[in-house]
From TrEMBL:
It holds the Pfam family CTP_transf_like. It is an enzyme of class 2 (transferase). The keyword NAD applies. This is Probable nicotinate-nucleotide adenylyltransferase. The lineage of its organism: Bacteria, Bacillati, Bacillota, Clostridia, Neomoorellales. HAMAP family: NaMN_adenylyltr (MF_00244). The keyword NAD applies. Pathway: Cofactor biosynthesis; NAD(+) biosynthesis; deamido-NAD(+) from nicotinate D-ribonucleotide: step 1/1. One of its GO terms (biological process) is NAD+ biosynthetic process. The gene is nadD. Gene3D superfamilies: HUPs. It comes from Moorella mulderi DSM 14980.
């Protein structure tokens, strides 16, 4: 990470980004704006802990695509933190690293889809995580807000007020669908930045042959 310690609120956008798409970018920008974040750092997952049974594209490809996708936004950065770390990429370790880097006075906001937040009780060290950072949960198409209300009482009391919801324009875009489209020779234009689309075609990602598509191993 390259930054000074002057920032008061920093966003962390974690994801597999296989590939990154406009759903991720719109969400990050909405969170930045609504929570007055000084910047949003995208953190491509090295080895996603919850996708152990699936094959994920090479981290370097996912990192490169994230760099290309975020290059035009001066408030966006990309971190190699999880890519370069050994073992599974647990968010609690990443947040801890950010905390060490930015110091105790900076508020950290982990940005994620509201569907992912529903699973947060299964995340590693959730109690510690909720002490270290806030969560911004973006609603995505098909998500019902009341389902989050149901799981809230199960969270540690002091952590409940640290989960904030935002609504983003309904973008029914997913990485799964994009990979499927490439495999089936369907257009992906306007679902993700042009530079990422070019990268996918140039590198031959998601074609049946080299199958960056998740597959049961
Ligand atoms: N269209 C979208 N709108 C809002 N949030 C999204 C959208 N797509 C993904 N997210 C959120 O962004 C984060 C990173 O997502 P991820 O990289 O897994 O993308 P994905 O499209 O959900 O991938 P996949 O289809 O492979 O599961 C997750 O918290 C996810 O909920
Ligand atoms: O730390 C965990 O236990 C954990 C469990 C599930 C998901 N996460 C993180 O949540 C983010 C969104 O995950 P995904 O699969 O939707 O891309 C990503 O940064 C993951 O590393 C983290």
């Amino acid at each position: 990470m390259t930054a000074s310690n002057n920032y008061r609120r920093v966003g962390i956008m974690g994801g597999t980004f296989d590939p990154i798409h406009f759903g991720h970018l719109v969400t990050a920008e909405a969170a930045r704006w609504e929570f007055a974040l000084e910047k949003v750092v995208f953190v491509p997952s090295g080895r996603p802990p919850h996708k152990k049974d699936y094959r994920v594209s090479d981290p370097e490809h996912r990192y490169q695509m994230t760099v290309l996708a975020t290059a035009s936004n001066p408030y966006f950065e990309v971190s190699r933190s999880e890519i370069d770390r050994e073992g599974y990429s647990y968010t609690v370790d990443t947040v801890h690293e950010f905390r060490r880097f930015y110091g105790p006075e900076v508020q950290l906001f982990f940005i994620t889809g509201a569907d992912a937040i529903l699973e947060i009780l299964t995340w590693k060290d959730v109690d510690r995580l909720l002490k270290e950072c806030h969560f911004i949960a973006a609603t995505r198409p098909g998500f019902q807000l009341n389902r989050l209300g149901e799981s809230r009482p199960m969270l540690p009391v002091e952590g409940r007020h640290r989960i904030h919801l935002i609504e983003v324009p309904a973008l029914a875009i997913s990485s799964t669908d994009i990979r499927w489209r490439v495999q089936n020779k369907k257009p992906i234009k306007y679902l993700l930045p042009e530079a990422v689309e070019d990268y996918i075609h140039r590198q031959g990602l998601y074609r049946p042959r080299d199958c960056g598509v998740y597959e049961k191993s």
